[in-house]
């Protein structure tokens, strides 16, 4: 296996020995995984390999039966914290299906995501400052929605919604982005743009991308982790894992 | 202000309310032509209070997506809290007056016993229960109008939201709360006179010389002012980022969590705040109604509240006001015996009996065919169409069109 992550500047997220089962089915089986502070990582694997469950556990949606999820310099255990606290700690998540607030404008969606005090009273008396507006404008330009700020996001196309959600993710200014199939339903041009956005983000923070599309993964040009039946099957560069016989047997060969 | 810019309906509402208030004042028996009877002024004043609690319902249901079927419990509690002071203070004046002619001046404990006998005689008691401790003090009871329902809402909401009870289960839970409260109050030893409730609330202590003609208009003004302030507060709440977040909770609560907002905290805030608003509405309503009893907070009352908001159009504040005013006034018309019976030859439709059927039917029809309610009519006038988008997105190459739109 190529350079272990623990030898880099430090570990941002370390998942160790987690297992979870639903009605007897082991979705995650003694999974260990770690990622550094400014790193891009792609997770691939067949359906049911536990990719989405892994994200659910890290973001606090699902409680694992055992194991630890350690976060940041202080190695705080995230298990037991609720979703909102984990998000505030610096983990952002993009869902497979684009989930934006369709009844609200692009501007409102982005402003809601921009990093600020999340306490109800602070939100109630919140007045957007210049830096908040500038941040919204900047992100809107980055995701190609600068002209659409006043449109209801329900009117956007599928690809635009995907970008809006990526924009909201970046607005949160997370240290770790968990991105589930960002390129689903996008044209080739849109995919390339998405790759650029993610690569740019990975320069300053950790990005974990779950993706089925091998071409997209190749373009990300990063370390790949292959999951199978809830644990890591192989890890390394894309070329390295695609030549792995186990990976070919369970995933690529089919 | 930002609020006015984002809500073009706000100045219109203020103007309509001011004109309405002035019109009623100058048509009242006390201050004008006398075209509106005192009892109808009271009905209108009560209607404003109902519009006020409907705004609270709209905030909690229409904006935050919590279908609370228990907000009338807070409304009733507010009424009970102010009713305790009204009853105590007025009974005390009467008792002191009647004892003044006695040979020996009465001791404080004699006065207290006499008041107790007067108030609790109907339930076979003469002792003041513990909950009447502050009934002698106007300001203490005013504080309790806010505190008692507020704390109940806070505790109930904390327990419910913390365990992530949502949807229909939460609605059932709130129904159980209001049912339990009304059953408790029905008991004679609840300390609030059982099913007799509190009565004579229209008589303000020390104001016997003032005619109800004037008092009714004063309460009408107070209700109007309270409605205005509630409307402004509600507009302020929903027009900024707070409004964004609560509408987000309504539409996709899990997504809001992953943005880092504490959904439970926001729900609890809105639930408690609207509970307090409802209580203030009740504290203004029951002195105009004159009587409050446990039947007022029966589960059905809170369901009516949801029906008003649905018919008026939820998710817009003026919709709640229109729904409450329209339905409760029409209801007064039909159940008050003013509506003429319809003789079909073989059967006579008596509106007193059939009004509820009509209301239920219109609720079903509005839900099915006009989900935006009466408020949706204003969208037709202002040509504000919301996109009617069904079918699947066509995917990247067809841009933002969906199946059915592309076929056109």
Automatic annotation (TrEMBL), chain A:
Domain (ABC transporter) ranges: 13-254
PROSITE patterns assigned: ABC_TRANSPORTER_2 (PS50893)
Keywords, alphabetical: ATP-binding, Nucleotide-binding, Transport
InterPro entries, per database record: AAA+_ATPase, ABC_AA/LPS_Transport, ABC_transporter-like_ATP-bd, ABC_transptr_urea_ATP-bd_UrtD, P-loop_NTPase
Cellular component aspect of the GO annotation: plasma membrane
Protein's name according to its UniProt entry: Urea transport system ATP-binding protein
Molecular function terms, GO-annotated: ATP binding; ATP hydrolysis activity
Automatic annotation (TrEMBL), chain B:
Topology in the lipid bilayer: Multi-pass membrane protein
Keyword Cell membrane attached: yes
InterPro entries: ABC_transp_permease, ABC_transptr_urea_perm_UrtC, LivM-like
Compartment list: Cell membrane
Keyword Mitochondrion: no
CC annotations in GO: plasma membrane
Transmembrane spans: 12-32, 69-89, 138-161, 168-186, 218-238, 258-285, 291-310, 317-334, 354-381
Pfam families tied to this protein: BPD_transp_2 (PF02653)
UniProtKB keywords: Cell membrane, Membrane, Transmembrane, Transmembrane helix
CDD domains in alphabetical order: TM_PBP1_LivM_like
Gene Ontology molecular function: any one: branched-chain amino acid transmembrane transporter activity
PANTHER family: HIGH-AFFINITY BRANCHED-CHAIN AMINO ACID TRANSPORT SYSTEM PERMEASE, SLR1201 PROTEIN
Protein name: Amino acid/amide ABC transporter membrane protein 2, HAAT family (TC 3.A.1.4.-)
Organism: Celeribacter neptunius
